[in-house]
Amino acid sequence: MDEALAKTEAVIAKLKQVRAGLLHDLLTRGLDEHGQLRDPIAHPEQFQDSPLGRIPGEWTVGFLDGTVSQPSDLAIGPFGSNLLASDYRSEGAPVVFVRDVREDGFVWNSNIYVSKDKADELRAHSIFAGDVLITKMGLPPCIAAVYPNTMPSGVVTADVIRLRPRVDVVISFWLAAYINSPRFAACVRQITGGVTRPKVTLTDFRKQPVLLPPVEEQKRIENMVLAMARGIEEVEAESQKLLMLKSGLMTDLLTGRVRVPEHFGVRRHDAALSSRAHESASGPLGSEIADESGDTSPHAKNTSSHAKREAP
Prior knowledge:
disordered C terminus, globular, 312 residues, Adenine-n6-DNA-methyltransferase TaqI, Chain A, domain 2, 2 domains, 5-stranded mixed sheet, 4-stranded antiparallel sheet, 14% strand, alpha+beta
């Protein structure tokens, strides 16, 4: 059982590593009309010079204030006296703080609300599903996440930037992913360098450059990343099932209710894990996943050889 858990955790770690590498490639090379990563070495004609370095020929460089329909769509939360602790309630419209905005997605930990009347008073600082939320401060600042459709409309606090994308220019996923990228982080360091507690003003944020692929390509990239995220979630669910099984078996053993065979449940899980490695191996860098899971099947080996031949 412990061996099966260790294998599952190893596959999860490898999948997350591959996802990070894939996202980096997608944010710098993009996907062509056939859904393939562009290759700057094999096809340099598909790339162009830009103020941000070499980028795909179909991409443009814009500024964040050009990704919204109107200036008010790019705003920060209310200043001190407009939102006080005395305004907080146990129900109503959620209040979003810096701690709720994470690079791996929006996670509402605050559990703080304001009344509907107060939220209406602060409607200039409102947030809706699909808005991109960015931290103004932190180590580092400018961490972005998309406000999910599982949350009701709410308001942001003063240290959070709310950006409502112009959908014919950029989709929420691309904007959040790009803001979290090393390329954007380098731009932020230029305006916060040497500061003990780095903080970005809304004025500075508006002026930051952003890479803009065609919207259809942004959507292709989003679909690929989300597909990999679903794969990771499925393996994590398998890990949770194993943990529950182990907990139940330990309880049965300690109470003497049942005698458990030594390898109960492990072989079946190993077979499922091998199947998962097969599926993952069909994607970018899949051979590394197969190797990590111990999959030595002909399919995995063939995929590994193909990945090595195709790697730029």
